[in-house]
């Protein structure tokens, strides 16, 4: 009877040890896979352009999209980003050409960019007082206007997906134009 108990105990002990070892291997494999995925550099977006030839309002690869309403009084004619692709630690320049269908006397420009739901940029600027971005001053007349936005992409920024919105509103709070961002560094 004593030998049978020893056999039962050692069989139970071996099974528990095997299960524990298997569990450790699964956890170790998952940790190694997660670490490997974290260490691999993410692909840079190939092109970040939004223009009228893309009829559905979405930039190539879905990185930029026009989220404006059909009744908005500003239309995006083109949006080009350089360098292509953006690089960490470098200045990123966005050149946009806009068509105003009516006069705009004033308003605001709101820029929000998030990384994993954490705001990394949240700026609100007076639409009539941004000479570094919009060369023309208010009132903005109907017609084509060009704007340039320059921002240094932090060298310590993590690899991953960034989402955001750039929204211009008139002085009454009505949306003029909306650009949705979704890019990966």
Automatic annotation (TrEMBL):
Keyword set includes Signal: yes
Entry's Gene Ontology molecular function annotations: sterol binding
Role played: Catalyzes the intermembrane transfer of phosphatidylglycerol and phosphatidylinositol.
GO biological process, one term: sterol transport
Record key words, sorted: Signal
Protein name per UniProt: Phosphatidylglycerol/phosphatidylinositol transfer protein DDB_G0282107
Domain MD-2-related lipid-recognition: 64-183
SMART domains xrefs: ML (SM00737)
Keyword hit for Glycosyltransferase: no
A Pfam cross-reference name: E1_DerP2_DerF2
Entry similarity comment: Belongs to the NPC2 family.
């Amino acid at each position: 009877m004593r030998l049978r108990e020893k056999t039962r105990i050692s069989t139970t002990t071996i099974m528990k040890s095997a299960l524990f070892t298997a569990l450790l291997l699964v956890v170790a494999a998952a940790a190694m896979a997660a670490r490997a995925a974290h260490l691999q550099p993410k692909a840079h977006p190939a092109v970040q352009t939004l223009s009228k030839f893309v009829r559905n309002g979405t930039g190539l690869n879905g990185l930029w999209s026009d989220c404006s309403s059909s009744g908005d009084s500003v239309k995006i004619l083109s949006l080009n980003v350089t360098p292509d692709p953006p690089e960490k630690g470098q200045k990123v320049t966005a050149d946009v050409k806009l068509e105003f269908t009516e006069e705009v006397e004033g308003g605001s420009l709101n820029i929000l960019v998030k990384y994993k739901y954490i705001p990394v940029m949240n700026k609100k600027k007076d639409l009539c007082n941004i000479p570094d971005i919009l060369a023309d001053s208010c009132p903005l007349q109907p017609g084509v206007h060009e704007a340039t936005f320059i921002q240094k992409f932090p060298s310590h920024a993590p690899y991953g997906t960034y989402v955001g919105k750039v929204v211009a509103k008139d002085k009454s709070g009505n949306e003029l134009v909306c650009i949705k961002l979704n890019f990966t560094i």
